[in-house]
């Protein structure tokens, strides 16, 4: 695993040094349990291999070139997904050579950057509008590159995407006819289904998505357009799309880390978490105040973790409950008064993706010590 230089000025740039004991890490810090992380990567590789589908993990979860390269080198990934051009640019600079921007890109400056990136890596992108097809083609011709393009269909999320079926076929025809664009297939991702907790309801939502993808693929083939790639799925539903016989590529992201909300998504077998993945990402926090009996204050507040999917949980401490957050403080119920000043806790963030975007570094730990420091390469890359 790669690490940052040893001469980094600890305390100004990073919260720890390689070789430090966990007790020496300055808090709040974003830490990765490397053993759990590696087990999660191996599990998803095994799932994809067993289903006979390609694995293209989503880097919007981690925004890290180090993590992406580990997923490719050790986890069987054929490449990665990004959501934004700036994410893709940062990760290509970090050594990633195959990127799907699994999102719509509009605006001439962004499309120009996308085409320029195709000079350094294999780049694919999604479309749901014929006007974008024309602009993509113009940029690709001007720069002498070819862009792979996937038609995104709205398969239930009611977000981006052209309607499945005939409208998708018409858009694919426009892509296939455009100079320097190659029609590559279908993007069919049902984002909101990932967090449907009940497995029966989740399967029902994905069955509809699979039906839309199947119908669209059949109509494309009838029109002489081969959708070589049918891609989508996330951590919560990867097993359903992967086993469908329709999708040949999956895009899970959060499986490497898991978070408090994904812990509530039950597996299709009804027992345990989806895929058997485990918590590997934590906000390490310290108790900074013990102002009253039954209450402790930690140094991880709103600026340390995202709470859009709920408050964090306290890892392996069912006796403690994180109950509120302000900018710099977190309040923890401690009914048995077990906590004291400077005690360390691992918080499982409610939503890992936006939490990772708050930090510059992952502090990677194993056997109680810091083994590596990975920069959050694409932190703040929003455009």
UniProtKB/TrEMBL annotation:
GO terms for biological process: D-serine catabolic process. Pfam families: Ala_racemase_N, D-ser_dehydrat. Residues 280-366 form the D-serine dehydratase-like domain. Transmembrane segments: none annotated. It is an enzyme of class 4 (lyase). This is 3-hydroxy-D-aspartate aldolase. It comes from the Bacteria. Belongs to the DSD1 family. Its EC number is 4.1.3.41. The keyword Lyase applies. Keywords: Lyase, Pyridoxal phosphate. GO terms for molecular function: D-serine ammonia-lyase activity; oxo-acid-lyase activity; pyridoxal phosphate binding. InterPro entries: Ala_racemase_N (IPR001608), D-amino_acid_metab_enzyme (IPR051466), D-ser_dehydrat-like_dom (IPR026956), D-ser_dehydrat-like_sf (IPR042208), PLP-binding_barrel (IPR029066). The keyword Lyase applies. Its cofactor is pyridoxal 5'-phosphate; Mg(2+). It catalyses: (3S)-3-hydroxy-D-aspartate = glyoxylate + glycine; (3R)-3-hydroxy-D-aspartate = glyoxylate + glycine. It comes from Neorhizobium galegae bv. officinalis.
């Amino acid at each position: 695993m790669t690490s940052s230089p040893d001469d980094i000025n600890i305390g100004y740039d990073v919260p720890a040094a390689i070789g430090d004991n966990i007790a020496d890490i300055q808090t709040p810090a974003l830490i990765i349990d490397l053993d759990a992380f590696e087990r999660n990567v191996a599990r998803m590789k095994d799932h994809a291999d067993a289903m006979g589908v390609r694995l293209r993990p989503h880097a919007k979860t981690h925004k890290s070139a180090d993590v992406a390269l580990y997923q490719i080198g050790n986890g069987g990934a054929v490449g990665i997904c990004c959501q934004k051009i700036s994410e893709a640019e940062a990760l290509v600079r970090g050594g990633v050579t195959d990127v799907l921007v699994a999102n719509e890109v509009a605006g001439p400056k962004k499309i120009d950057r996308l085409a320029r990136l195709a000079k350094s890596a294999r780049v694919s992108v999604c479309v749901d509008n014929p006007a974008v097809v024309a602009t993509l083609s113009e940029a690709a011709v001007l720069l002498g590159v070819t862009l792979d393009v996937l038609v995104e269909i709205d398969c239930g999320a009611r977000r981006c995407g052209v309607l499945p079926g005939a409208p998708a076929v018409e858009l694919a025809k426009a892509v296939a006819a455009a100079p320097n664009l190659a029609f590559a297939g279908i993007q069919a991702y049902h984002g909101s289904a990932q967090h449907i907790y009940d497995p029966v309801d989740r399967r029902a939502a994905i069955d509809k998505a699979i039906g839309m993808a199947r119908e669209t693929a059949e109509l494309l083939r009838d029109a002489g357009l081969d959708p070589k790639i049918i891609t989508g799925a996330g951590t919560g539903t990867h097993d359903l799309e992967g086993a469908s016989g329709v999708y040949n590529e999956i895009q899970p992201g959060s499986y490497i880390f898991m978070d408090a909300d994904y812990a509530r998504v039950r597996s299709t077998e009804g027992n345990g978490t989806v895929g058997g993945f485990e918590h590997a990402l934590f906000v390490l926090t310290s108790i900074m105040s013990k102002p009253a009996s039954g209450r402790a204050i930690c140094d991880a507040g709103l600026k340390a973790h995202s709470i859009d999917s709920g408050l964090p949980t306290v890892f392996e401490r069912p006796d403690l409950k994180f109950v509120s957050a302000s900018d710099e403080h977190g309040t923890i119920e401690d009914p048995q008064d077990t906590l004291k000043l400077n005690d360390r806790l691992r918080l499982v963030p409610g939503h890992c993706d936006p939490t990772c975007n708050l930090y510059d570094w992952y502090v990677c730990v194993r056997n109680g010590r810091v083994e590596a420091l990975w920069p959050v390469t694409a932190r703040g890359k929003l455009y």
